[in-house]
């Protein structure tokens, strides 16, 4: 019993971080109608700023084009570094609100989701740039709170856990009191419910939103500064703490600070206890069971809260990017594939690799375009399904001896089945809530399935047998400059061509008309006799099949696959890049393939200026935010509109 209580108390540290992030999600959503997926990334950046100040006295700036670092003091104290870091957090929160999310207050949910994804991608990219090389490993994560053990009731728990819990509970109580009893709290709630009415009463929604965003950014920064010694600092991993925070915020229906905060603490305690149970019970699988809790909480919240979940953008959500008829798409794709084959035959190894990566990324983008662009279902689990297909193909080949093309077909079929299970919430919800659900599902699949050693080969990974057909080797491996083999490149281009043909044919037929009808207005589509649930699940199956196809090709391309081959962050980037190119235009998938990391743009940038491709991730995030605000139809859509 003592062990259980100890682990529960240890979990209040992580739970306090989740609670602080959840509170930030709630107050920013109420203030500006945004579920900010980049909220934890803001805290991550601020934490890096704090620990770099403590190490070197240098302030790390987040703006590309400016000097990366500015020297402030020689040996800053804890208080000095903390004050400077929280001021930076306030500045970041204000800039993000005024420059990005205030202009998007009436935008469709997709635009706001993509803008927040762009913010996350940008901050991760900037931190990777600023802390590359030795500086990435030289940070000493000595937090501002004391880690000494405290004896209480026979339990030995570090003091920082108690301090974090007390601080979080104090913040919850203070914000509840402000929300309930002060003019500012009443003004915030009033502006959240009716912005126009608030203006008529003399309130300023911009000022209200600005204060709330600053407060949220400061809370996120402080929470992750304090939590860094507990779990470490990693740009991608720390930014994904947004998932349990979203689960806690969803329990509070994105309205209640108290419920969201307490739910966050509860999630952290439950995750800690699951670690204890895994350590003491051999029958429990050695996978990330604790990461499945947010997904479970999201599903339960959806069942219990149902239609009461907020979606204040319902009226505005009809203004989605245009989905023009794909008249010359197949001709363009055929020409692009032909040019790709010529490139495989005449260009060097780096360009051949870029062509292969771009072809696979095009298929990934098509999966996103089908479900998100043409049906309006914001799914963030594309690479989870791709990984399911890749690992299933390898396992079928190892267990049953099946090879190409039977094993890939089985892998794709498994991905479709898992996709339909993960897509069941889409029958009931859409928009921002569905984005939260699929993101939680993506993390759950990654932690539960991709860490299963029998299925994925654990940390060592699983070797992928090379594909061959009628004695012809279609694999990628070859010695020296012959790598990657032209045959595999042709295979990926043919798969890309086939995937595009399937999407275009579906889009031009009755299925495509049903997709667009459901996207525009589900109630009207239902009234017109269109089976909305069936259409959603059908589109989910098509998108999952495309993701599965990309997943098996990616497995063949990498040759050895592990859990890290199909990370949840890749799904977020896939949606972001597809939106950047043109989320509702199948031909835009070709542009998305070029923009993908490791694709043709990466190769060209490295050829023009060696090392310049390292900026691509951050620049893509910056472009996403700009496109979401200025060109909601994406780059291809904006070009089409300019021609008309």
Going by CATH, the architecture of the largest domain would be Orthogonal Bundle
What is Rg? 25 Å
Strand content: under 5%
Structural class by sheet pairing and helices:
mainly alpha
Q: Order the strands across the largest sheet as they lie in space.
A: 1-2
Give the N-terminus to C-terminus distance in angstroms: 71 Å
Give the total of domains: 2
Here the CATH topology of the largest domain equals ABC transporter involved in vitamin B12 uptake, BtuC
Bin the helical content: 55-70%
In total, how many beta strands? 8
* Major sheet description: 2 strands, antiparallel
Q: Number of helical runs? A: 27
Secondary structure layout:
Blueprint: H1 2-32, H2 39-56, E1 58-60, E2 69-71, H3 78-101, H4 109-130, E3 149-152, E4 155-158, H5 159-181, H6 183-193, H7 195-200, H8 205-231, H9 235-239, H10 242-251, H11 257-280, H12 292-305, H13 329-346, H14 349-373, H15 382-400, H16 406-422, H17 431-448, H18 453-456, E5 462-463, E6 468-469, E7 472-473, H19 486-508, H20 510-520, H21 522-527, H22 532-558, E8 560-561, H23 568-581, H24 588-595, H25 600-608, H26 616-630, H27 634-643
Antiparallel strand pairs: 1-2, 3-4, 5-8, 6-7
Helix pairs in contact: 1-5, 1-8, 1-10, 1-11, 2-3, 2-4, 2-8, 3-8, 4-23, 4-26, 5-6, 5-11, 10-11, 10-12, 10-17, 12-17, 13-19, 14-19, 14-22, 14-23, 14-24, 14-25, 15-16, 15-17, 15-22, 16-22, 19-20, 19-22, 20-22, 23-24, 23-26, 23-27
């Amino acid at each position: 019993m003592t062990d259980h209580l100890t682990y529960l108390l240890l979990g209040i540290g992580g739970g306090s971080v989740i609670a602080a992030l959840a509170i930030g999600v709630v107050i920013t959503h109420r203030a500006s109608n945004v579920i900010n997926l980049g909220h934890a990334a803001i805290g991550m950046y601020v934490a890096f700023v704090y620990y770099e100040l403590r190490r070197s006295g240098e302030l790390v700036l987040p703006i590309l084009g400016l000097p990366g670092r500015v020297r402030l003091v020689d040996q800053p104290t804890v208080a000095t570094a903390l004050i400077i870091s929280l001021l930076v957090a306030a500045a970041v929160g204000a800039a993000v609100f005024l420059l990005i999310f205030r202009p998007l207050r009436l935008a469709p949910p997709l635009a706001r989701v993509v803008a927040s994804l762009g913010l996350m991608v940008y901050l991760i990219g900037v931190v990777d740039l600023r802390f590359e090389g030795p500086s990435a490993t030289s940070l000493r994560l000595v937090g501002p709170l004391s880690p000494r053990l405290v004896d209480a009731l026979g339990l030995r728990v570090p003091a920082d856990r108690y301090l974090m819990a007390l601080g979080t509970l104090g913040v919850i109580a203070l914000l509840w009191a402000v929300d309930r009893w002060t003019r500012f709290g009443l003004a915030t709630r009033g502006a959240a419910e009716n912005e126009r009415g608030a203006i008529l009463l003399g309130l300023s929604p911009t000022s209200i939103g600005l204060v709330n965003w600053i407060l949220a950014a400061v809370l996120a920064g402080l929470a992750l500064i304090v939590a860094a010694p507990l779990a470490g600092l990693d740009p991608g991993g720390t930014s994904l703490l947004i998932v349990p925070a979203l689960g806690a915020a969803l329990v509070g229906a994105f309205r209640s600070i108290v419920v969201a905060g307490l739910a966050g603490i509860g999630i952290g305690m439950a995750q800690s206890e699951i670690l204890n149970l895994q350590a003491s019970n051999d029958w429990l699988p050695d996978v990330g069971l604790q990461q499945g809790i947010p997904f479970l909480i999201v599903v339960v919240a959806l069942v219990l809260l149902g239609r009461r979940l907020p979606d204040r953008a319902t009226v505005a959500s009809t203004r989605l990017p245009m989905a023009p008829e794909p008249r010359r798409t197949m001709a363009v794709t055929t020409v692009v594939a032909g040019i790709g084959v010529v490139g495989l035959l005449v260009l060097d190894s780096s360009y051949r690799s870029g062509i292969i990566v771009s072809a696979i990324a095009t298929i990934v983008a098509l999966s996103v375009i089908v479900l998100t662009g043409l049906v309006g279902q914001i799914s963030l689990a594309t690479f989870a399904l791709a990984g399911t297909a890749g690992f299933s193909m390898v396992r079928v080949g190892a267990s049953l001896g099946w090879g190409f093309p039977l094993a890939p077909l089985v892998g794709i079929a498994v991905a479709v089945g898992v996709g339909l299970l993960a897509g069941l919430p889409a029958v009931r919800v859409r928009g921002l809530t569905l984005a939260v659900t699929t993101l939680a599902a993506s993390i759950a699949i990654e932690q539960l399935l991709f860490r299963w050693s029998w299925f994925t080969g654990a940390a060592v990974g699983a070797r992928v047998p090379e594909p061959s057909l009628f004695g012809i080797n279609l694999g990628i491996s070859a010695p020296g400059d012959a790598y990657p083999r032209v045959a595999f490149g042709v295979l990926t281009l043919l798969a890309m061509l086939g995937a595009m043909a399937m999407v275009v044919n579906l889009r031009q037929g009755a299925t495509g008309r049903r997709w667009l009808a459901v996207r525009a207005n589900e109630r009207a589509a239902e009234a017109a006799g269109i089976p909305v649930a069936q259409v959603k699940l059908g589109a989910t199956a098509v998108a999952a099949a495309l993701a599965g196809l990309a997943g098996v090709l990616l497995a063949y391309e990498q040759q050895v696959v592990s859990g890290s081959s199909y990370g949840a962050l890749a799904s977020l980037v896939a949606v972001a890049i597809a939106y950047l190119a043109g989320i509702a235009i199948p031909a835009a998938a070709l542009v998305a393939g070029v923009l993908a990391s490791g694709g043709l743009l990466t190769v060209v940038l490295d050829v023009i200026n060696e090392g310049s491709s390292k900026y691509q991730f951050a620049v893509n995030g910056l472009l996403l935010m700009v496109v979401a605000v200025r060109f909601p139809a994406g780059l291809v859509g904006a070009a089409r509109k300019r021609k008309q």
